[in-house]
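Please fill in the sequence for the structure shown.

STRUCTURE ENCODING:
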C-alpha cells in the first residue's frame, strides 16, 4: 500500500535526523507532488504518523515533527515545571481561568461533594518549548485553601499549598484514559478538533488523608510517555 511506504520513508528521515524535532513539513500539496501521489493517499500516511506520535498537526499551521515526549512517572511528586526542567525541557504555564463556582457533575464525583457545594475551578495550559501540550483543569476544595484565588496561579499549586497553607500531597490516585481534544481545549492546544489525547486524572490527598483537590490533564498524545518503575515483593 502506497501510504504505508510513504509513512516508512518519512519515519526513516526522522530516525536519520534529516527531519528535526518541531520542524514544519512542506504543505500537503508539495508533499503529494514529491511522492507522486494524491493528497488523499498522503493524508492516510500522515494520519498513521500522527497516530504513532511521529508528527503533530497545528490548526491552520500544518504538520510538524514531534519532539521526544516528556517522561511522566506517576510515582514521582514533581510538579510540571520541575519535571520538565529535570529533563532539560523549557516549561511555561498560562492561566486560562480561575473562579469560585458550584461544583459540576465531574467535580462532585471526583471530590465526593454534595450537590451545590462550592469549589474552585482553575484551568491552565502548559507549554514545552512554547508548544502547548496539555490543558489542565483543577477542582479545589475552597474551605481548605481560603483566598487561593488571590495567588499567582500560573505557579505550581503544589508549591502554593506547601508554602502558604502547610499542606502537602501525601497520596495521589491516578487514572489514565484516552480521549479526543474538542472545542476550547483543542483551540487552546492549537489542535484540530478530534485530535487524540491522553487523559491523566489525579485525585490528591493531604497528610491527614483528606481529599483536597483533583486534576484532569488533557495531553497531546505525542507529547507524553507514561513511565514508571515498580519494585515487587517476592512472596516466600
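FILLED IN BY: designer on duty
SEQUENCE:
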Amino acid at each position: 500500500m502506497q501510504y504505508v511506504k510513504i509513512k516508512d520513508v518519512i519515519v526513516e528521515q526522522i530516525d536519520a535526523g534529516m527531519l528535526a524535532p518541531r520542524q514544519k513539513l512542506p504543505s500537503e500539496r508539495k508533499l503529494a507532488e514529491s511522492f507522486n501521489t494524491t493528497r488523499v493517499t498522503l493524508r492516510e500516511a500522515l494520519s498513521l504518523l500522527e497516530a504513532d506520535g511521529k508528527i503533530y498537526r497545528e490548526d491552520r499551521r500544518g504538520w510538524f515533527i514531534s519532539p521526544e515526549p516528556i517522561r511522566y512517572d506517576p510515582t514521582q511528586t514533581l510538579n510540571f515545571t520541575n519535571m520538565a526542567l529535570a529533563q532539560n525541557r523549557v516549561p511555561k504555564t498560562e492561566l486560562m481561568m480561575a473562579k469560585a463556582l458550584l461544583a459540576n457533575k465531574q467535580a462532585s464525583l471526583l471530590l465526593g461533594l454534595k450537590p451545590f457545594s462550592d469549589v474552585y475551578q482553575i484551568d491552565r495550559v502548559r507549554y514545552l518549548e512554547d508548544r502547548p501540550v496539555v490543558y489542565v483543569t483543577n477542582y479545589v476544595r475552597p474551605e481548605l485553601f481560603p483566598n487561593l484565588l488571590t495567588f499567582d496561579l500560573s505557579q505550581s499549586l503544589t508549591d502554593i499549598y506547601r508554602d502558604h497553607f502547610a499542606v502537602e500531597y501525601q497520596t495521589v490516585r491516578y487514572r489514565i484514559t484516552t480521549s479526543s481534544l474538542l472545542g476550547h481545549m483543542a483551540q487552546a492546544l492549537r489542535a484540530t478538533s478530534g485530535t487524540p489525547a491522553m487523559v491523566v486524572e489525579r485525585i490528591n490527598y493531604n497528610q491527614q488523608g483528606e481529599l483536597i483537590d483533583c486534576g484532569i490533564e488533557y495531553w497531546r498524545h505525542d507529547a507524553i510517555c507514561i513511565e514508571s518503575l515498580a519494585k515487587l515483593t517476592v512472596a516466600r
